[in-house]
């Protein structure tokens, strides 16, 4: 018993260049249909099949591209990456500038508040000094 299912009624290839049409059923593969259809298979179809496979392979995989095209593509990719990094750096520097300005404004408000409190303290000290002047006249 063979390991994979094979129709035992299929005839082996004769010496001719092609086999007679026969009914085949497709049962394998995730996307294959389960319909039966008539096909004519060629004995020398192996080379044509591999040619089609290599065309599909080269379209999907860019291994046969011109080196100058590949170099240009890489250069564009590097430029795009550098531009993204520059944008990130610009945003970071803008954030740092905003934080620095906010810190300076906070310091200015803090200094203004300290100056206001110092004026109040100075006014209170003057008031106490005026009250203290008449003291000690009786000595």
Automatic annotation (TrEMBL):
Q: Which residues form a coiled coil?
A: 90-117
Compositional bias annotation for Low complexity: 27-52
What are the boundaries of the region Disordered?
1-72, 119-139
Coiled coil as a keyword of this entry, yes or no, is yes
Q: Where is the composition biased (Basic residues)?
A: 128-139
Compositionally biased intervals (Basic and acidic residues): 17-26
Q: Which UniProt keywords apply?
A: Coiled coil
Q: What is this protein called?
A: Uncharacterized protein
